[in-house]
Amino acid sequence: MAQYFTPKVFSFIRQLSDNNDRQWFKARQEQYELEIREPALDFIEDFGKQLKKVSKHFNADPRPVGGSLFRIQRDTRFSKDKTPYKTHVGIHFRHFATKEDVHAPGFYLHLEPGGCFAGVGLWRPATRDALSIRTKIVDEAGRWKRVAYGTRFNDIYQLEGESLVRPPTGFDPDHPLIDDLKRKDFLATTRFKQSEVTSAGFMDDYLNTVKVAGPFMKFLCEAVGVPY
Asked: Which domain holds residue 42?
């Protein structure tokens, strides 16, 4: 077992949070590469071999640009917050068969001081995909309850995300699963301690969460018409 992430990851992010400007970051670009980017890319490359054993349809792409590692730079074009850098590390193992990018079915890993977590599912899916998922929940209500609320899944994960204020058009507002039908996001998360992320066994720990999410992810992939 290998240790990929060290406490230096979180130390750098904390410092970046206090000094979120380009001059500070540029002076420490090499430190960022050594302590965060390179370990993250190594993790992605090695995890890809394990991910293929779970499902061959998800991409672990270790390219420095355009791969599974989100860029540290923020897109500030349409945001009131003009700080230039993200204060977390984001890794997304997306489905091969869709071009929806961050809105595709996928496995997500988020590293942040005091806020490390793994996510599975779809964040803010396209309207057509959200409709397909809601329809499948209605058509296969029993299966949805097993994959989203079964003991093994709920021992690790909890459903999260935003919801519509009102029931979606075309769905019974009195449906017993109306809270799920109102979801904008069809995802679940599980938390990690910082000590777990920096341990030599973290790869296995993260892999276990991915395996447990299999039935949940299979349901969602089928709903949007891609293989699991």
From this structure: 7-224
116-122 β-sheet, strand order: 58-59, 89-95, 106-111, 116-122, 186-192, 158-160
Which DSSP letter does residue 37 get? Answer: I
Over the stretch 156-186, which tens digit does the pLDDT of each residue have?
A: 999 999 999 999 999 999 999 999 999 999 9
Task: Please check whether residue 209 lies inside any domain of the structure.
Answer: yes
Task: Mention every residue, 6+ apart, whose C-beta is less than 8 A from residue 17.
Answer: 87, 113
Residue 179 near residue 164, CB atoms below 8 Å = no
Q: What is the CATH number of the domain that holds 26?
A: 3.30.930.20
Contact between residue 91 and residue 40 where contact means Cβ atoms under 8 Å apart: yes
Domain count, the chain: 1
What pTM was estimated for this model as a whole? 0.94
Q: Say if 198 falls within a structural domain.
A: yes
pLDDT in tens, 55-108: 999 999 999 999 999 999 999 888 888 999 999 999 999 998 766 578 889 999
2 lies in a domain? no
Question: What does the alpha-carbon distance between residue 119 and residue 105 come to, in Å, rounded to a whole number?
Answer: 11
CB 187 within 8 A of CB 121: yes
